[in-house]
Target: HD domain-containing protein
Amino acid sequence: MSSLSVTYEMVRHSAEINTYIQQADASLIALGYTEHSFAHVTRCATVASHLLEQLGADERQVELARIAGYMHDIGNLVNRVDHAQSGAVMAFRILDKMGMPPADTALVVTAIGNHDEGTAFPVNGVAAALILADKTDVRRSRVRGRDTIRFDIHDRVNWAVERSDLELDKEQKTLTLRIQLDIAVCPVMDYFEIFLERMLLCRKAAEYFQLSFRLEVNGQTLL
Model:
């Protein structure tokens, strides 16, 4: 049980926050983006917090990573452009109103404001963990309709991913994203066309923890 005044369970069950997540995803549906709703944000919360747990972070940072992961995409409610910064401002108001102490709010807001690849940087451990969780969430279930894979490269790449796993090896100091890609649906080059910037950002985030980031696609090390 977390000793924080505002916990992940409080955030996850907040009707206000959940409304913003739903409406933000509704905007992305209209724009033709992949799923950014509860499956995505819950996965980000889980992966970010689990990574920090494995790395020996304290309970406070682990819980704040869960909160940041769950709330990181609410800025899409305002606009997809600069959604990290919009989401950070929204999160500040929400968490402050909920009574979260400034030091904790600052970590969450900083992580949210630094998660989008256009402006992101792993400025602290929570931000680094959120970047890694968010940018490695590639999977078939994020595609809203199979008919779009013919013309939308983002949908095609996500649909082609049969399995993806993020594995930490503390002894070797590596963090490896292993992807099983159906190349009949999507060639490896298509993956790099849209994800190279994200993978390089993951490398920076891994380096924050003094880890080497690796990308394996169909058993081949590509990064």
